[in-house]
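Sample intake sheet
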Amino acid sequence: MAATTAASRLDFAPAYRRPGPLRRLGRTARQHPAGVFGFIVLVLFVFTGIFGPALAPYDPDALSVGRPLEGPSLQHPFGLNQNGQDMFSRVIAGARVSLIISSAAIFIGAASGAFLGILGGYYGRWLDYIIQRSGEAFAAFPSLVLYFMLRAALGPGIEAIIAAIAIGALFGGNRVLRSATIIEARQTYVEAARAIGCSEWRIFIRHVVPNVLPLVIVIMSGALGGAILAESALSFLGLGPDVVSWGRDMSGQNLSIARTGYWHVVVFPGIAISLVVLGANLLGDSLRDIWDPRLRR
């Protein structure tokens, strides 16, 4: 009788239901609040960069929209600079410039460098030797000096800045991806694919690359902050494009004005740069924790 009762309880026991995608997403968000903060900051950054002209209350290049060097107020939340330009509108316009330059540079430079690192790690031999020695040659130059050299060689304009930052980011995560690819290439599923007659290129594209792709996304999200800092540094030193940008608004003349008590001229562009770089780094760290099985709780 007891055995029958136990069997009936097992028959009518509720089956385990796997949590839905929204529930898993919510649980991941609760475990990584810093990553959620970084994601929100980057979403706001992208939204501002895309819809900036519709959000800006004034033309960022318009002169004398108010009294020069006026402090923050309801009409001008970030105040005015020495030319009477609205700083709130200029910060919004600078988001678009930073978004275009940093995104294009990362997708061109970091993505190409990631592919080279994976390619060298899988095929090895002379191809890996050439890629790694080229990365060491680039690493011999300080990054800022390399940006200066490339900027001087390529000339003015947004395209030149994108090319300079992209070349500088070419070998950023190269060695990390090379090591991850070497580990993946020695896995059992790669040997099984070779045993059933798959070509090396098919194994590389269909099996190895998808397994290291999460690491590529993590590296690119971290490199986004570095690209924004590089663009801001070049604009700060007067080597950036002749457009509204966060680094340009923090240049030497504005710093001199800020020392006289008009702090708002440089503080708000600096806060924008710091928030976006912090958001990119926090999101990259959280993605690494989520996708790396060794770091999961």
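Comment: The chain has a mean pLDDT of 78. Residues 87-123 form the longest helix (37 residues).
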